[in-house]
Specification:
The complex is a heterodimer of chains A (213) and B (193). Chain A has 213 residues and is mainly α. Chain A is built from 9 helices and 2 strands, in the order H-H-H-H-H-H-H-E-E-H-H. Chain A has a two-stranded antiparallel ribbon. In chain A, a hairpin with a 2-residue loop joins strand 1 and strand 2. The chains are: A mainly alpha (213), B mainly alpha (193).
């Protein structure tokens, strides 16, 4: 289905690290911070977003020749809102408890700039196969980022992962990590780590360049 | 129907459960437009206005949706109303005050994808606010959003003058500032409801 110029694996892998939606592009911050207070919520939110990314990417890509340029944003939003509504009802059917924990944030996937951004920048210009791969890569990258933040907040804030206690009872939990400000701090921590890794990468590239010349 | 008093709804939306610092809504413009105090004030004003209009529209639409018993159309119709409101505000601003319009630039159309506005519409529906309650709620949310934006811009303007390590510069520094601001706002817990 995909053409051979840029390998399909590239489209998939770029979302995981090089163009990671949360840590590198800083898109979709609202859900990344709001529902990452436990690892379970983070995972559920990530999967729901991935589903919407995949389905909207596929639909936008299939319809790309029929949507007039002037009305494209409105059409994209309509498509995205349709899938978000179905996810909303799906989660309600699977687990009412989870639906309550995520609250309005499932509905707010509609306004996640990541999804509209991918629809506009990628899916509307590429074939369905590629759009699916791109959506999958971005979705998994987003889910991983959310999980990273969620795990840090849950370990420090409640001393557990996915509800299983991992730290001894003597550990004084950092209540602040479960509260809203903890989201900002955990996110800042991961951004620092990612920045440092990127910095090291560019330094290494510079050094090899110097060694070669 | 919710029986919370108007004053407590306002305080709740503006301070205790500040949309940006407690609910994490509208984070993108919060970081994007908060580097200068002046643009922050303008953005706060524009968002507050769109919130007010969107809240009234959402209230009317919800009545209609209840009438035809179609709650599954809620998300789609809300987002449509919000995008048309933003379009309207854009045209009005262009006509009435071209200078402000140019200063706002790309951020005006981006209000459409500001989750604070859709969030406001959904919250007021979920809590079953009446008409005046909904209007007060949207006013409080707008004031809270503008307040957070202006506070943040003030801190970031000062931060520009200080030496910050390269690693922390930009989003990471802004996140830490936001975290501390959010901790400060936690002090309001207990006020209102």
């Amino acid at each position: 289905m995909a053409t051979k110029q840029v390998t399909p694996t590239d489209e998939f892998v770029k979302g995981l690290w090089r163009d990671n939606p949360v840590f590198v592009q800083v898109l979709g911050m609202c859900p990344a911070l709001a529902v990452s207070n436990t690892a379970m919520n983070a995972l559920a939110m990530g999967l729901a977003t991935t589903f919407v990314l995949l389905m909207s990417g596929l639909s936008v890509s299939l319809l790309r020749n029929f949507i007039p340029r002037e009305a494209r944003i409105v059409s994209f939003i309509c498509i995205i809102a349709t899938f978000v509504t179905s996810v909303d009802y799906l989660i309600m059917a699977i687990s009412l408890e989870l639906h309550r924990a995520l609250g309005a944030f499932i509905a707010l996937i509609v306004v996640n700039c990541l999804i509209l951004g991918r629809a506009e920048a990628f899916a509307s210009k590429n074939r369905p196969g590629r759009a699916l791969l791109d959506g999958l890569g971005m979705g998994i990258g987003f889910t991983l980022a959310l999980l990273f933040i969620g795990v840090v907040r849950e370990i420090l804030g409640s001393g557990s992962i996915f509800g299983f206690a991992v730290l001894p009872d003597t550990f004084q939990t950092w209540t602040v990590m479960v509260l809203p400000s903890g989201g900002f701090f955990a996110m800042a921590l991961w951004l620092l780590i990612v920045n440092r890794l990127k910095q090291r990468e560019t330094e290494a590239a510079k050094q090899t360049k110097r060694a070669l010349s | 129907m919710n029986d919370a008093s108007h004053w407590s709804i306002f305080l709740n939306a503006a301070l205790v459960n500040n949309f940006v610092l407690a609910y994490f809504l509208g984070i993108c413009p919060f970081f994007g437009v908060s580097s200068k105090l002046e643009t922050a004030v303008r953005m706060g004003g524009a968002v507050s206005f769109v919130m007010l209009v969107a809240s009234v529209c959402a209230f009317a639409i919800n009545l209609l949706l209840d009438l035809v018993n179609a709650p599954y159309l809620r998300i789609i119709s809300y987002i449509m109303v919000i995008s048309s409101t933003v379009q309207l505000v854009e045209m009005l601003m262009k006509k009435l005050s071209p200078a402000t319009f140019r200063a706002m630039g790309i951020y005006l159309p981006l209000i459409t994808t500001n989750c604070a506005i859709l969030g406001l519409a959904l919250f007021q529906t979920n809590r079953g606010y009446g008409f005046t309650q909904a209007v007060i709620y949207s006013l409080g949310a707008g004031v809270g959003f503008a307040l957070a934006l202006v506070l943040m811009a003030g801190v970031r303007e000062k931060l520009e003058l200080n030496e910050v390590p390269d690693l922390v510069k930009g989003t990471a520094a802004a996140l830490v500032v936001a975290g501390i601001l959010s901790m400060g706002f936690m002090g309001f817990a207990g006020l209102g409801r």
